[in-house]
Write a structure and sequence with these properties.
By secondary structure, the chain is mostly helical. It contains 17 helices and no strands. Helix 13 (307-328) runs antiparallel to helix 16 (413-438).
């Protein structure tokens, strides 16, 4: 028996391969999460400044506070879900209850502030409720990946499926932008946001239910041993002592803080620098379609080469393409499309590959400690990503305000320059920081084979 065959047989003893249809069904949860999350990631800052007419600095603070609140809930959610097991499995209860709450609160963000006497306070309340309900579905869904597959290469494939579904969700958002930012809509732009929020919330709810029901047996049948509180605390301490955990958390932090700024800035860049709101939808759609197509490419590479190496390549492509966009794009045309394609291609690798690394780190921690705290580690990754995303959005908003940005007027040359440089070179800095961190990651496919053998040996004792 070859080493590869031996590895596959070991993993089959722990858990047989998951059928592609069920794997894809699970992955549709990323569509459900992304269609609501990316609506806010792309347009929330713009919605607050240009629709609700709230100052950019205040908008940045609101977004930061909401994401930090969300991040505070994640560790608590991780501890609770690791200690939960019932007839809906380990994570089913949270997804089934959280999905409708998330859908309703998402719609409220785009309706209630516009009819409220105190739009800012109403907006903050809606955002906090949404972030809390989003935590109920996001963390359990991410942690499920470590339960439905024990094979490192299969996880890489599923991670790519997940990102493909994320990209389809983002595509829905970008296609909606063609209508939302149509100049003929004019004063009805707020209504367009409201209508889309209802459609997006419905499909989010539907796909989250489909996701869990596709793999419900694996959620129910996987080990239901509940860790003690002492074991969870020990596992948390190990996370902060383990170098591989540090690498994944920091790489996710730098990427989440910097990379999404391009999409946020693109809305302002097209409206004010290029003076063409139609290009917002064109740029976002081009980027997202490129992301979706690239998942096949990155899935192939991450199964053939070590995941950290592939992730470094994706960051290099991202940094080069962001720089090219900043230095060469001054109007609509082929250069605009070309760089958006490359930026999307790089982002496809960044967001798909890193989530394929998370379950491997969980296995490594399990082997070291004897405790399997899936949700606790996932919560740490998510916490730092959300805090980073909030910091990035806040920094971008403050830079706009300091450059003299004011909504719906002709911007000064200083403001236009700030939009261009911030939206491109902050992501470049994030890519370079991520590359430096990823150099220290050493869980290769080969290393994971030995981890899997060690876990099987413990299981058979």
């Amino acid at each position: 028996m070859s080493r590869e065959q031996k590895y596959n047989s070991i993993n089959d003893c722990i858990q047989p391969p998951i059928h592609n249809i069920r794997a894809f069904g699970y992955s549709t949860g990323n569509f459900g999460k992304n269609i609501v999350a990316n609506t806010l990631a792309y347009f929330l800052l713009f919605y607050i400044t240009d629709i609700l007419n709230i100052a950019a600095k205040t908008a940045g603070v609101v977004i930061l506070v909401a994401l930090i609140f969300d991040a505070i809930l994640d560790p608590l959610m991780g501890f609770i879900s690791d200690r939960t097991y019932n007839r809906f499995g380990k994570y089913g209860t949270f997804i089934l209850l959280g999905a409708p709450l998330c859908a309703i609160s998402f719609i409220a963000i785009f309706i209630l502030p516009l009819v409220s006497d105190r739009p800012l306070i109403t907006l903050i309340a809606c955002l906090l409720i949404f972030r809390a309900s989003y935590t109920l579905i996001d963390l359990p869904h991410n942690a499920l990946l470590a339960r439905i597959s024990t094979n490192s290469q299969e996880r890489a494939k599923i991670a790519s499926m997940r990102f493909f579904c994320s990209s389809v969700g983002s595509l829905g958002v970008s296609l909606a932008a063609f209508h939302i930012f149509n100049p003929k809509v004019g004063a009805n732009q707020a209504l367009m946001f409201q209508q889309f929020s209802v459609i997006a919330a419905f499909f989010s709810l539907l796909s989250m239910y489909l996701s869990w029901f596709s793999v419900r047996k694996r959620d129910r049948n996987a080990t239901n041993t509940l860790p003690s509180i002492q074991g969870q605390i020990k596992g948390l301490i190990i996370i902060f002592r383990d170098r591989q955990s540090h690498v994944v958390i920091l790489a996710g932090f730098f990427a989440a803080m910097c990379i999404p700024i391009f999409a946020k800035g693109l809305t302002y860049f097209c409206k004010y620098n290029l003076e063409d709101q139609n290009l917002i939808a064109v740029g976002l759609t081009t980027t997202v379609v490129s992301q979706a197509i690239s998942t096949i490419f990155w899935a192939f590479l991450s199964q053939k080469f070590n995941k950290s190496t592939v992730l470094i390549w994706a960051h290099i492509l991202s940094a080069v393409s962001m720089s090219g966009f900043c230095l060469t794009v001054s109007s609509s045309g082929l250069l605009f499309i070309f760089w958006c394609v490359l930026i999307g291609w790089g982002a496809g690798g960044i967001w798909s590959v890193i989530w394929g690394m998370v379950p491997d780190v969980i296995d490594n921690l399990h082997l070291k400690t004897g405790h399997r705290s899936e949700a606790v580690f996932v919560s740490m990754v998510v916490v730092f990503m959300k805090i980073a995303h909030g910091i990035g959005a806040g920094v971008f908003a403050f830079l706009l305000a300091d450059a003299g940005y004011s909504a719906n007027i002709t911007q000064s040359p200083e403001t236009l320059s700030q939009i261009r440089w911030s939206m491109c070179f902050i992501p470049v800095a994030g890519a370079l920081l991520s590359i430096i961190v990823l150099i220290f990651y050493n869980i290769s496919h080969e290393t994971h084979r030995y981890i899997a053998q060690g876990l099987l040996a413990k299981k058979l004792k």
